[in-house]
Amino acid sequence: MKVDTAGVRQRPRVEGGREEEILDATVAVVAELGYDRLTMDAVATAAKASKATLYRRWTTKAELVVDAISRAKGCPMPEDVDTGSLRGDLISMSCGDGGFTDEMPMSVIAGLITALHRDADLQKAFRERFLAPRQEVTGKVFERAVERGEIAPGVDIELLSTTLPAVIVHHAYVLGVPPTDELILRVIDNVILPAARGSQAS
């Protein structure tokens, strides 16, 4: 999705490595307090920065939070891995740093869930800047699986590609079950791969 940036005000950068420190502090505060309770004061204190510094770069907490979760080290983008199999790719993306078993990204999502339902600006920015790049990486994984013949004709790839995160989010935030490698493997082996082969129609 191409975002029209015409007329968008260019925000001043924060000098040196301070911007990364502020972004990391923001991620930590979101994970601890959630979006609703997060304030610029709390971030400034955590980052040991002045509130004026924050406001020169980000005019609202929504801008700051979305920037933070999109770029900070605490929530890294999954790499576009190619292990040679759909199963291997999904395991590599979902387990470890930045995956579903990584405490920081999951804590950040938990801190945003309630606000995402009622804050349209936050929802739009989160979808475009956080979810979209990750969905693009996942899409490439499933495209390669199609090319390798691992996915049967007629399988709903768009639905299939969202199944793993949907199950993980349901377990984590509805059932209260923390994501584990074992759970991820169960979903991959018992749901995604059989569905990819078209086994549900047999």
From TrEMBL:
DNA-binding region extent: 39-58
UniProt entry tagged with the keyword DNA-binding: yes
GO molecular function annotation: DNA-binding transcription factor activity; transcription cis-regulatory region binding
Domain HTH tetR-type stretches: 16-76
Keywords: DNA-binding, Transcription, Transcription regulation
Protein name according to UniProt: TetR family transcriptional regulator
